[in-house]
Write a structure and sequence with these properties.
The chain has helices spanning about 15-30, 40-50, 65, 130-150, 175-185, 190-205, 240-250; strands at about 1-5, 10-15, 80-90, 90-100, 100, 115-125, 155-160, 165-170, 215-220, 225-230. By secondary structure, it is of the alpha+beta class. Strands 2-1-9-10 form a 4-stranded antiparallel sheet, with helices on one face. Strand 6, helix 4 and strand 7 (about 155-160) form a beta-alpha-beta unit.
Length: about 260
């Protein structure tokens, strides 16, 4: 991830270049004999979303659309964005992230009620202890994403090794840590995750103490440490747009420096 500090606030965003390169490298890796490719598994996930979702509530959607979903072209462009104000430990956070769907009706722009977000996931049907362990580790990623964005429900589609949907499981996000602790192998603990995040955020605020510049937050695969280091001495990279800086500074930034200071 990339980060910058502006007017006392640390702004963090995903490192999009690294994400693209990482996905390209991952998709170039040869699959195990008999195993599906990464591209094919990605397609299965998007196909599950296409089959599961409607563009409008059920009674507002035509019968033709509902019955022709199997033939629809798969797309990953349509999505919601959940924006959440929350806190972890001593840190106050505003988070934004992609969410797949809403459970009942589309939220009204004037409503202050919690939104019944739903996240859709796919996983191979577990058949062995090793498969169960792998799925339980996946559940950690499912839980973190949905917990942070205020998504109360996760629906998992279990597939065969050939990509055929075999069953569905409906999970309540808040119950996942307890479920793993009571029924699973105990590979992760939600309280440990939250406490670690609180400590890391405190440390990050002390590390990124100067205004301006771009910092890289990195954890290499299988590495036991998280690295934080500066990659640009001034400016905010592409993290903050000029329009945002103008709004925060209350001027047109004519004559402003790279940090947005007038």
């Amino acid at each position: 991830m990339n980060a910058t500090k502006f007017q006392g606030t640390i702004f963090i965003e995903e490192d999009h270049i690294h994400k693209i390169e990482s996905r390209k490298h991952q998709h170039q890796q040869p699959s195990y004999p008999g195993a599906p490719s990464q591209d094919l598994m990605s397609y299965w996930g998007y196909k599950f979303e296409t089959l599961s979702l409607l563009p409008a509530p059920w009674d507002e959607t035509s019968r033709d659309y509902i019955e022709s979903r199997e033939k629809h072209i798969v797309s990953n462009h349509a999505q919601y964005c959940s924006v959440v104000k929350t806190g972890i430990g001593k840190s106050k956070l505003i988070l934004g992230g992609e969410v797949d769907a809403v459970w009942d009706t589309k939220p009204s722009g004037n409503s202050t009620d919690p939104i019944n977000w739903v996240e859709l996931k796919t996983a191979a049907t577990p058949h062995s202890d090793r498969d169960i362990l792998k799925y339980e580790r996946k559940l950690l990623k499912f839980w973190v994403q949905s917990f942070l964005l205020g998504v109360p429900k996760i629906i998992v589609g279990f597939r065969s090794k050939d990509g055929v949907l075999e069953s569905l499981e409906e999970l309540q996000t808040e119950s996942l840590p307890r479920m793993v602790k009571q029924r699973g192998k105990g590979t992760w603990d939600g309280n440990v995750c939250i406490n670690f995040t609180a400590g890391f955020l405190d440390w990050l605020k002390n590390t990124i103490s100067d205004e301006g510049g771009v910092w890289r937050i990195r954890k290499r695969e299988k590495a036991p440490v998280i690295e934080v280091f500066k990659v640009e001495e001034s400016g905010s990279g592409d993290i903050l747009s000029r329009e945002f800086l103008e709004w925060r500074c209350g001027s047109n930034l004519e004559g402003a420096d790279e940090n947005g200071k007038v």
